[in-house]
């Protein structure tokens, strides 16, 4: 595979499950340097945050309400520190979201560092930790912030590339035999409406809502409005009391009309997408 681009990736997860990412950090490499950094919150399919995970990354459920989807990585060279973890999260998440598994190449920067700086003393694993290697190559970063971790991972790979005199990271990985090609797999054939919703945003498992909004009721109470698959196509379901008696409560009507005045979740773009989703359905 020829890699069209190189990016470092780092996930933080909400709990022990690998399909529970709540943040992804990305650092794109071009021309031998990091040209773009990005950190995104992700709303995990299951909103269960383990206290131990929160202690590590500090991300709480309220932080990811209405958070968006997932970066496009097909055809890329994806760097990660302990790639088996991040690649595992990626695969589990794409599956949970009903998205196809893309073909890409991965490179683990732990393996890269081990190969390039072998026998880092008798300190065992310690000296190949992200923080140790970042210090070694002179990068300061905030550990366990996904964006910062991805950036540190990218800079470590670039440092090895420069020391090894390689023209780019892809050829370095090939030269060392460390690049792992990940074959893509077919789509789980989501139906048309789900596919459209997933392209726009992203939740989730088949029975989970396609889109999720939080709106402020007239007395200030927040309500959840979810786009769900109904028999006659997608429809909005609201958590307010009024919705028990009539399906199109005022919150549903407002969102369906594209009104975002009462929107508390940070996804006005999804409201714009709603009109099309509901019309097509
Ligand atoms: Zn309502």
Automatic annotation (TrEMBL):
Pfam families: RNase_T (PF00929). PROSITE patterns: ZF_SWIM. The keyword Heme does not apply. Residues 223-260 form the SWIM-type domain. It comes from Methylobacterium aquaticum. The keyword Metal-binding applies. InterPro entries: Ribonucl_H, RNaseH-like_sf, RNaseH_sf, Znf_SWIM. GO terms for cellular component: cytosol. One of its GO terms (biological process) is DNA metabolic process. GO terms for molecular function: 3'-5' exonuclease activity; nucleic acid binding; zinc ion binding. This is SWIM-type domain-containing protein. Keywords: Metal-binding, Zinc, Zinc-finger.
